[in-house]
Amino acid sequence: AVGLMAGKRGLIMGLANNRSIAWGIAKSLHAAGAEIALTYQGDALRKRVEPLAAELGALVVGHCDVAEADTIDAVFATLAEKWGKIDFLVHAIGFSDKDELTGRYVDTTEGNFQKTMLISVYSFTAVARRAEKLMTDGGSMLTLTYYGAEKVMPNYNVMGVAKAALEASVKYLAVDLGPQNIRVNALSAGPIKTLAASGIGDFRYILKWNEYNAPLRRTVTIEEVGDSSLYLLSDLSRAVTGEVLHVDSGYHTVGMKAVDAPDI
Ligand code: NAD
């Protein structure tokens, strides 16, 4: 992939630490020659993001909490001033109260439903609207989703409902932005042990289940998600928009427990 992203610049949102999916994507983009800008959420994460940014020679744009629109505006104002134009956008952000990532979906509270939707769904649209203005030569936008959007997964609850809405918004955004040659896609990653994932009840069970039952009989890494994202963020996928690409060792194809799967 050397040179695949040469001359391209873009923003990656959602880096928390070196286990983040955003980090896998940032490393692959950097290795392919892209110039990267990063945001962080709050001072605690700033300390983690700055050294990672330095490893890739990335621009740290600043703090962004997508629940506060003025912080999104500030990020895009800085990008407009420093770069003027961007070619890609990665949205690797999701949040739900961990007390509701366990038990029954039916017990979801109104407050957490709204917060989950705002941060995990609307924020992609809010960011896309600002990024559109900087994608004057076309571009590629990518968000991260999960199979829990399509099928019911234990404990995923309101996040599953949010990911379903996120995938629908990918299609609506693809139609709105297509005439400007801006493509909008989602990458549906298999389960990976990250900070966000550790909030999901019994996550280890989900990991094991995937390892035993996915066609490739293993889970996926952030580096593999990063390499697959290169396809969606580069000109290799220049005719692809409104798509959800599964990077999950093939798990989404499976209808039943594998015959050789051990008990967990
Ligand atoms: P992570 O904890 O490393 O990243 C989540 C990021 O969301 C963090 O950087 C956090 O700062 C950011 N975030 C949360 N609320 C925010 C807010 N209000 N404003 C700005 N940023 C905010 O975990 P991850 O697993 O790398 O998550 C990245 C994306 O991948 C999420 O959308 C997640 O749902 C999705 N995903 C994860 C998995 C998995 O198994 N880990 C699988 C499929 C999809």
TrEMBL record:
GO terms for biological process: fatty acid biosynthetic process. Gene3D superfamilies: Enoyl acyl carrier protein reductase (1.10.8.400), NAD(P)-binding Rossmann-like Domain (3.40.50.720). The active site is at residues 146, 156. Transmembrane segments: none annotated. The keyword Repeat does not apply. One of its GO terms (molecular function) is enoyl-[acyl-carrier-protein] reductase (NADH) activity. Pfam families: adh_short_C2. The keyword Iron does not apply. InterPro entries: Enoyl-ACP_Rdtase_NADH, NAD(P)-bd_dom_sf, SDR_fam. Its EC number is 1.3.1.9. It catalyses: a 2,3-saturated acyl-[ACP] + NAD(+) = a (2E)-enoyl-[ACP] + NADH + H(+). Pathway: Lipid metabolism; fatty acid biosynthesis. NAD(+) binds at residues 14, 20-21, 41, 65-66, 93, 163, 192-196. Keywords: Fatty acid biosynthesis, Fatty acid metabolism, Lipid biosynthesis, Lipid metabolism, NAD, Oxidoreductase. PANTHER family: ENOYL-[ACYL-CARRIER-PROTEIN] REDUCTASE, ENOYL-[ACYL-CARRIER-PROTEIN] REDUCTASE [NADH], CHLOROPLASTIC. Belongs to the short-chain dehydrogenases/reductases (SDR) family. FabI subfamily. This is Enoyl-[acyl-carrier-protein] reductase [NADH]. It comes from Pleomorphomonas diazotrophica.
